[in-house]
Amino acid sequence: MTPTGTIEGVESKLFTTSNFRLESGAVLPELTLAYETYGRLAPDGRGAVLATHGYTGSHHFAGRYRPGAAPRGLRDEDLGSWDKLVGPGKAIDTNRLFVVASNMLGSSYGSTNPASIDPRTGKPYGPDFPRITVADIVTAQKALLDALGVQHLLAVVGPSYGGFQAFQWAVQYPEHMDGIVAAVTSPRAPGGPDRTRALIADLATDPNWNGGWYYDRGGIATVMTRLRVATLKNYGIEAQLGAALPDPAAREAAIVKAAEPWAQAFDGNSMVVLRRALEDFDTTPQFGKIRARVLYVLARTDKLFPPSMAPGVMQALSAAGVDARYVEIDTELGHLASGLDGEKWAPALKTFIEDLLRG
Q1: 59 in active site
Q2: Active-site annotation holds for 335
Q3: Could you tell me the residue range of the domain that residue 245 belongs to?
């Protein structure tokens, strides 16, 4: 590693535990979480940062994989989504901090999810995968951190769905971290069951859908590609590609090409499970539990979580006595800005992390 730069030789690792009880009372006979780590954990188990990822993203936050080590759906040369923010000498400095980037329970990048084999049947869980909550996702991450010897977190950081997890950490384990960084997100999830039903209806337009039992029918890559293209556009990918690809046809082809590997790797039922977990997600009634300092970050052009949300969130945090500050990224890159335009808010993140380190 250079004093300031990109981490090389990253590996995606697996943590496994047995008989994991969900909030619903259902038990997963085996729970696996994929994760990456950067830096070294201090002997006292403190000074660690947990990085949590977005809805359909992966836990690859920083650096590049060692040759041949990229998980399915990613490439060895892919930089982590927050590589501008996490690494040696960066805002989250891996020369000083131990960073754990955890995949979500229910996600398709190596963790237990609906495409995983149910050991009780020898077949994929499919649509029979038990209902999970954001609290379950956080509880699984806590088990991972315990296994790694992490005693206390300096911060939980993450964008979008990762920001939901950061807020959940703050109310579920209020004494376990000094701060959270919640980017392009909200303390409550938009929508409800209607969104889940609409997603299922969309997935069902694929001729292979079969009520969610498509694993022996060749999958549902056609509809998944279409959904991914729509998602990337909603996130702001056209602004990202606009300068390099001014021709609309060429830009559309590039977006489809970017969508296809994800469509092959990500499971449709996983999208449903993670979407359903948000149906009743709302941490605002529990703001009084928060002991961590909060850095709330929104992007000027984000359509999903526009800056107009900020006053209400900040007022609610203040009313609960939470030490919170707000940063707005001046960007054209919409929902993708926290990573792709990371340099634009890196100074604010660095200051926040330094303040946490000073206590």
Answers
A1: no
A2: yes
A3: 193-273
